[in-house]
Amino acid sequence: VSTQSTWGDELLQLHAIGKRRAYVEEELAKCAGVLGNNALWAAIVMPLHDLIHSERLDTSRTREVLAQTDARMRQLQTRIEQVDALRQKSMEEGDTVTAEAHHDAVLQLLEQLIALVQDRLNALGGRGGLTGAIQAYNDFKDRALETLGSWQADWSAVKRRLVGDADRLGDAKKNADAINVQRESEVSDFLARNGRDLEDNVAQQDRIWDEVQKLVNELKGLGENRWQLVSQRMDVVEKERRRKVEFDKFCKVVDNHMRDLQALTQAVDKVDGLLGPTADFVNRGCDLVTQKTIAAEQNVKDLRTDEERNYLSVFRRYYLTLGELLYRKEKRLDELTRMYRSEQLALEMANETLNPKGPKHASKMNKLQEMIAPVQTKVDRLRDSADRAVEDFKPTEQSLHDSGVTFLHPAIELEEINIQRRKNMQTVKKKYVDADADDVTKEEEDIQQRHAAIQQARQESNPSSAAALGYAPHRRPQSQAGNPMSSATPRVDGGFPGASSLPLLTAPSPSSG
To answer: Phi then psi for 475, rounded to 5 degrees?
Structure first.
């Protein structure tokens, strides 16, 4: 009875085992999903494959876009050389009007070339053009590693629970086996004792059969005793049959559950074996993407540096060409202004001395005024163009210096060219013009000081030194730029951009014009 009670307690756990088996079947379904590569394929493998083969890290497309504009650049450069050759020929022939028209055409073509170079730089997407792709790769890498780590931790926990369940089921099975052996032993002992008692009963019946009459009451008692023994035997046999049926059911449930646990354990082992190589694949794929990212960044950096060098070359030619035309037009404006003041002085003297040539001087002043206005307009337009060109070039200038490219800024180069021009004009003044010696001396001192400043800036050769010279074209004082017919003395610094902001320079003499 005590054994049956203990076994009944064990059977009460079958309901709990059924619940655990439902959990095991659910986990088996999850393992099947992982082993079928559905989750890994959708969450990690395919996104990494797409990222490795993404065109965002491929610079060949950028090179193709740049190659589409190469023909246009060559066409513009050829046209610039042709127009510049015509300008030089017109200058040699003394046809200044045609030379000026060709000069303007060269500037327009150079502006188109600069715009084309800027478009090529914009096509590269800046020096950090791969930031979006790299950020997307880094986000994916973090998510993939986090997902793999979470999966590995979850399946490790499942495996620990499986091992614990298997151990507990094994202990329960051992306990049930021990109880079954004990119960079979007790029933066998009981049946043996019952058989001996039955044999004793038969022997006693045989011995007293001859004394039936005398022993009727005793025989009746023995019969009742036999009935009790048979009934007890039948009850025990029936209970044992029912216990064996229940034990067989229990063993069948335990065996099925153990098979499921073993299958789930094998599936979890396979998942662990799959997650490990997957993690290695992700790490190798991430390393590959990192290498491609570094190579793509270097390629874009090299392409941008080449385009920036090209931009520097085009900008230098444009700036020097514009500076040459600006220098000549300002000299022309200075000359017309000087002639206007001379006629104005002659008119005042004619009025003072009652010279009948006064109207002639007034007519010349009107003609000079008509000539000064378009020249002044063109000078202002050229200065604005120089301002815009320098401002547009500043980001490229800084980028070239950051890349370690050393170059002489066109503003410094133009300053040196203008100084040489002034030196040549000073030689002409000494040779052909009867000018005041003091003015000539001051002009030479000013040229020497500017030349020294330029040499210092050239030796330093950095953006701050070039900025000290000033890139913007020099602006005339309002008394001269706004009213070219005023009595103020015109500027003689050549009008090159940055001339007014050179350090340690003295102002030019009023009579040096």
So the answer is: -100, 130
Residue pair 201/225 in contact (Cβ under 8 Å)? The answer is yes
pTM score, whole prediction = 0.54
- pLDDT digit string, tens, across residues 104-132: 898 899 989 899 888 888 877 644 445 56
Long-range contacts formed by 346-349: CB under 8 A, 24+ apart = none
pLDDT at 339: 92
Instruction: Give me the pLDDT at residue 215, please.
Output: 64
DSSP assignments along 219-271, one per residue: HHHHHHHHHHHHHHHHHHHHHHHHHHHHHHHHHHHHHHHHHHHHHHHHHHHHH
Backbone angles phi, psi at 227, to 5 degrees: -60, -40
Question: What whole-number distance in Å separates Cα of residue 373 and Cα of residue 229?
Answer: 145
b/e per residue 328-353 (b: at least 16 CB within 10 A): bbbbbbbebbebbbebbebbeebeee
| Alpha-carbon span 150 to 83, nearest angstrom | 70
pLDDT at position 20: 60
Residues 6+ apart with CB under 8 A from 56: 130, 132, 133, 136
Amino acid at 454: I
Residues belonging to the chain: 513
Phi, psi of 473 (to 5 degrees): -60, 145
